[in-house]
Amino acid sequence: MLRYRYLFSQLVRRELRRKYKGSSLGVLWYLVNPLVLMGAYTLMFGHVFRLQTIPDFPIFLMIGLVAWTFFQQSLLSAAESLIDQGALVRKVRFPRQTIPASTVTVQLVTFTLILLLLAPLAIAIRGTLAPALLLLPVIVALLFCFVLGCALIVAVLHPYFRDTAPILTAALLPWFFLTPIFFQPGSIPFVERHRWVGTLLGWVNPIAPFIECLRSILFYGNVPDWGRLLYVFVGAAVLLIAGGAVFRRMERELAVVV
Amino acid sequence: MRLASGEVVLEDATRSFRVRADQARTLKGLVLGKRAGGPAPVPALQGVSLRIGPGETVGIVGRNGAGKTSTLRVLAGIIPLESGQAGCGGRVVSLLELAAGFSRDFSGRENIYLQGALHGLGRDELEARLQEIIAFSELGEFIDIPVKTYSSGMFVRLGFAIAAHLDADVLLIDEVLAVGDEGFQRKCLQRISEQIAAGTTLVLVSHDPAAIERVCRRVIVLDAGRVVFDGPTAEGLLHYHQLMGTERGGGLSLRPEGRSGIEVTDVELRDGEGRQSAVFRAGAAMTVASTIRGTSALDPRLRLELRAMDGTTLFSSVHDVELGPEGTAQPAFEIAELALLGGDYDVVLGTGERALDRTLRFAVVSDSDAGGFIDLRGRWRSLEGVK
Q1: What pTM does this model have?
Q2: Quick one: which of A51, A246, A63, A257 has its CA closest to A160?
């Protein structure tokens, strides 16, 4: 596996340049797209349809959005990745995990860059320069493991069951609205009356605790509560192991089906 | 399975494919509990066993669909077996699909890095080989432009140059060499021989018996997913031609329908014992037997030509035929010793000046390593000291 480190870096490079090669902005498109999306959502949910009165709402929203965008883009690009690179899969024997892993890594680069723009802004506006910030890289690393595990599963499923990517695309939209990105579950009046809805939104949705952790650190300057920290740690470990296992189990026939 | 570097083993390898492999199972099919329907799987390999030692050069031949490419893909570890075992010792470099695996938008140079990385090489190892690969490919300044602008010949050059410089212990090549031009082919064969001398094992799949003859010392003939012959090249190609010969008829008519006059109606090639054959050993006897039917009062002239695959006439001869009372004749051209080198040839027969009526293809198998078509049966010797 270690032998293929260089292949992995080649695939990341290739993935970075492949999509926008020949366009004038080039790899900058990887930043422009999510920034435009975040701008639009901030405008709509921050000013036009304001659900809750949360101070510094744009910052609140953007922290959730950047994590969600990483999750969504990684899964969507990983699902198609093995078929996109079918020529390689059919031709040479190499660890096929490197293909979805490289697409997720490209998304991680984007995510990290946007976070590096967003974090100083959040710290300055919210005054959250606190020791809790030391946990930020840890949460990002755990989120990466979680997303990579999910990506390995959808990547290896899609070549066998071609409905995987369309189902994923369809599921991600309602999932987005159910994720605490532009609302805080606890402070919606309906949820205050029905506490179990809040529990559902905050704990059953596996991406929610990651967003809550990022938000406690960047938005509130607090160390995330222990329950959530444990949740994201276990979630990342479980998904990464499960993703690797499912991929190994199903990769045998890839050269035939892609 | 522990294998020595350069060793290639298949044990009772069996594999079949669903006919419509492109149609993956859908979730709908899963939910409704439908089995993947359609026609039964087609067997590609049915209990293939072979053992190739380090440094051997093996050609795999067979009809389309005989399992040649499946064998290579199984050996390369790309496709798993249903039962049996497959393995190659050491670094396996495969040149399977031409131009597949190249990123079209990337330059030749960038593709060298990617291909090398796919075979498990690191940056330093590739940088050390880069100049050699570029020089071998003879692509010059084109190495820095996107490969989507390359011709198929340029793809072969780049693909082969990379594969030939990755220090393979086992080299698997599928029908790729045939695309390059003559000079580059010779260079590739030269490079392959060097690697073989250094201990690399070569497995080559080709439809071109001449290429196999030049490189391989052992031939495996596959038919319908089974090994039907495994042995020395000359014998193997003979077997292969016999296999293919069953698909060739007794002379193809070139004459447009409905023309009256004189015509060669049948042609047949016979060996020394008078049996019909489509494959001959170099130096063996051969008879071209023909049947002519005519209505013209004039006695026809029969013209016989021997042509190479590129259409070059190697030999031609004209014969005045006397038609019998029923307007037919059966002239035969007898050759005591066939002075041809290995390869495929056409016998063309016709009456009159230009009309060519029938063509029949045959193959010659030769042990000679000489090039060209005609076996001059010469020998090299030294004249030094002979004054």
Answers
A1: 0.76
A2: A257
